[in-house]
Amino acid sequence: MTDLKKGIQNHLLELQLEIDDIFAKGRDSVVSEVNIGQIYGGMRGVVALACNTSYVDPYSGLYIGEYTTDEFSNKLPEEIFFLLSTGKFPDKKSLLNFQSELNQRAQIPQYVWDVLRSLPKDTHPMTMLSLGILSMENESVFKKAYQKGMKKSDYWKYSLEDSMNILAKLPALAGGIYRIRFGDGHLIPHDPSLDWSGNLAHMLGVNDDKGFADLMRLYLVLHCDHEGGNVSAFTSRVVNSALSDLYYAVSAGLNGLAGPLHGLANQECLRFILEIHDKLGADPDEQVLRAYILDVLNSGHVIPGYGHAVLRVTDPRFTAFMNFGETNCATNPCFKIAKKLFSIVPDILMHYKEGKVANPWPNVDAMSGSLLNHYGVNEFDFYTVLFGVSRVMGFCAQNILAQGLGQPIIRPKSVTNKWVLERLRAKG
Ligand code: HAX
User: Fold this and answer.
1) pLDDT digits over 131-190, tens only?
2) Are 25 and 41 in contact (CB under 8 A)?
3) pTM score of the predicted model
4) CA dist., res. 51 & res. 401, Å (int)
5) How far is the CA of 352 from the centre of ligand 1 (A)?
C-alpha cells in the first residue's frame, strides 16, 4: 500500500471517530435554520454539508486541513494533494513516491488528442479540458470494479486510483490544450525529471524563466480547494454521490468552474485591466480611475475580482499573488494597474448601493491574470484551465473522503411557490 493510501486510510479512521463522537453528542442538534429568502437565494449561509479537506473562514480565509494560506502557500501541489486527502503533509520519502507514481501515469491516450483536435478551432479551452477528461471515462478503474461488485468500503480505494490517473495526466492535458488551441499544435513531451507544476510550465512551452515555473507552482497551490459548497466542488460531489466515477464528477465540476461568476472571473479580471490600460493608459490618475469604476458599476456590471460569497476580507490568496508580483514583476503595467485598483475599488464598493456589496475586498482572481500576462500567457480564455488543473485536486480529495466515510447520495428537498405560500398561510 502506498503512503498516500495509508495516510488516507488513517485519516478516514480519525474522521469517522470524530463523526461517531459528534453523533453521540447530538445527531439531532439543529445547527442551521433555513428561511424563505435562502430557499430562493442560492442557499447562501445554510450550513448543510460537511467537508474536511478545507475551510474558508470569512475573516482569515482558506485553511487546508489545519494550515492557513500563509502556512501552505510555499509548498508543492503534490504536498497539497497529500494534505487535502490525509490531513498531513507527506515526508520526503512519501512525496517522492507519490511524484514517481504520477510520472508513471502521465501518458495521455492518443484518442484524447484526436477528440480535442477534431473540435472547432474556437472551442473554449475549458470545454476542451472537461471533454478531455470525460473522453477518458472508459479508463475508470472504479467503474470496472463496481461492475464486478466491489464492496462499498472499497469505493474510495478505486476512486483514489482514478484520481491518481486523472491528476497525473493534467499537466500534459492542459499543456496540450494550450498548444492545440493557441500554438502550432505541436505537443511538448512530459519530462519525468520535473515535478507536477514544473511539467505544466514546461509543456505549455511559453516561457523557460524560473519565475514562470514558480508562478505555476503558486497558482496550482492557491486554487486547490475552497470548501464543499462552491459551485464546482458541490457539483462534482453531487455527481459522484450518485456513484458516477471521478471522470464524470471531475468533468462536471469543471463545467461549473467555467462560469463567469466562478472560475471564469479570472479571465474577466485581466480583460478589465487591459481595457483600463487601453482607455486610461499605463498609469491612470486616481480620480480618473475612480470615475471609470463608477461608470462600470452604474452601467450595471460587476467589478471582476472583487466580492465573495463567503470571505469578508482581502483574500489571503490575493495577497500571496501580490507578494509574488512585488518580488517578480513590480514594474509590469498590468500588475501596477491591479495594485492601483486594490487601493481604490474596496472603498467604492463599500459605499456602493448603500453597502449592499457584502464583501468589497479582492478575491483570488483580481491579481493572478496580471502575473500570467507578465510571463507571456496572454490568452485569457486559458486562465480558467490553470485554475481547473489545480481545483481537480480538491474535487478528487473531497470525493475520496466522502466515499471513504460512506456518505449517501445527495438529494435535498425542493418546494414549489404554492408550498411556500401554504406554509406562510398556515403560520398566519
Ligand atoms: N461589483 C459590483 N457589484 C457587486 C460585486 C462586484 N464585484 N460583488 C457583489 N456585488 C453586488 C451583487 O451583484 C449584488 O447586487 P444585486 O443584489 O443587485 O444583484 C450585491 O452586491 C450583493 O451581492 P453579494 O452578496 O455581495 O455577493 P454574492 O455572494 O451574491 O456574489 C460574487 C459573490 C463573487 C458572485 C460577486 O461578488 C461577484 O459577482 N463578483 C465579481 C465576479 C468575481 O470576482 N467572481 C469570482 C469570485 C471568486 C471565485 O469564485 N472564483 O472562482
Assistant:
1) 999 999 999 999 999 999 999 999 999 999 999 999 999 999 999 999 999 999 999 999
2) no
3) 0.95
4) 9
5) 12
- C-alpha cell of residue 150: 466491489
Distance 300 CA to ligand 1 centre (A): 12
> In 45-195, which ranges are continuous DSSP H helix?
69-72, 77-86, 92-104, 110-117, 125-135, 141-147, 155-182
| Nearest ligand 1 atom, CA 363 | 48
pLDDT band at 371 (very low <50, low <70, confident <90, very high): very high
The dihedrals phi and psi of 68, each to the nearest 5 degrees, come to -75, 165
Q: At which residue does the C-alpha cell 520519502 appear?
A: 93
264-375 adopts what CATH topology? Cytochrome p450-Terp; domain 2 (1.10.230)
- Scored b (16 or more CB within 10 A) or e, 135-174 reads bbbebbbbbebeeeeeeeeebbbbbbbbbbbbbbbbbbbb
Is 398 in contact with 160 (CB distance < 8 Å)? no
Query: How many other CB atoms are found less than 10 A from the CB of residue 242?
Result: 11
What does the domain layout of the chain look like in residue ranges?
264-375
Residue 257 CA, closest ligand 1 atom number = 52
- Ligand 1 mean position to 20 CA, how many Å? 38
Report whether residue 318 contacts ligand 1, using a CB cutoff of 6 Å.
no
> What is the set of active-site residues?
262, 308, 365
Rounded to whole angstroms, how far apart are CA atoms 6 and 86? Answer: 9
- Our answer on whether the CB atom of 307 is closer than 6 Å to any ligand 1 atom is yes
